[in-house]
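Good morning,

Attaching, inline, the backbone tokens for the sequence recovery test we're adding to the shared suite. The designed sequence is right after.
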């Protein structure tokens, strides 16, 4: 399957596979500010479930980027063809206020920038659906739920093994049934943005 991820439902509908998993294109907001001179030293990549933000430096340390680690900020399902590209003022204010608890030297005077991106959340169990489908030649890898970057090597390996029927010492040893299209939802005690 081509990389359709947030657009996957239209393609799955065409082949009658859209009912199996609730895969929702979801708007994700990001804020960034210029790093004020009052913040000195390295800024580590930090995810703070108490204040509900993660942050890191970007642009060679000249900016600070802030995002959310709260499931409540992953609820805005959108039409991927009409994604609002900006960051909402309320979101930016709330997250910068939360960041202030971790970086107390932060000034509120900085110009605020931001944007929205998309990822596809599998609302059932926040795990991807990966592997062959009943349609000959069609393989899926979707619903990474915001973890597509770090899961990519394993997912690529699962798909390659499914297509070739072969595996090597470098391949993942994840059981293909674990993420298969016809699996049962994985039982989770909580569904979090950091799942
Ligand atoms: C806000 C946000 C936060 C995320 N956080 C995380 C995280 O913390 N951890 C994690 O594991 N994953 C995270 N993800 C998911 C991760 O970013 C994606 O799973 C990953 O980037 C997908 O990689 P990709 O190479 O398939 O696609 P992309 O990274 O989207 O790359 C596709 C590239 O193709 C280019 N392109 C598109 N169309 C064309 C065209 N017609 N011609 C030429 N070029 C084209 C695009 O410009 C883009 O550069 C996040 C996603 C978002 C939106």
């Amino acid at each position: 399957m081509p990389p359709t991820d947030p657009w996957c439902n239209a393609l799955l509908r065409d082949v009658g596979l859209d009912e199996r998993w609730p895969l929702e294109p979801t708007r994700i907001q990001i804020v960034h500010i210029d790093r004020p001179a009052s913040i000195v030293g390295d800024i580590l990549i930090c995810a703070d479930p108490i204040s509900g933000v993660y942050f890191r430096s970007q642009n060679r340390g000249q900016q600070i980027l802030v995002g959310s680690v709260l499931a409540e900020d992953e609820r805005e399902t959108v039409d991927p063809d009409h994604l609002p590209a900006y960051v909402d003022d309320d979101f930016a204010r709330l997250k910068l206020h939360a960041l202030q608890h971790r970086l107390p030297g932060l000034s509120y005077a900085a110009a605020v920038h931001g944007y929205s991106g998309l990822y596809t959340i599998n609302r059932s169990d926040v795990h991807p659906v990966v592997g062959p489908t009943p349609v000959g030649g069609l393989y899926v890898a979707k619903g990474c739920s915001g973890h597509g970057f770090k899961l990519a090597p394993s997912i690529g390996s699962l798909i390659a093994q499914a297509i070739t029927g072969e595996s090597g010492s470098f391949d993942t040893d994840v059981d293909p049934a674990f993420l298969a299209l016809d699996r049962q939802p994985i039982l989770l005690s909580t569904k979090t943005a950091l799942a």
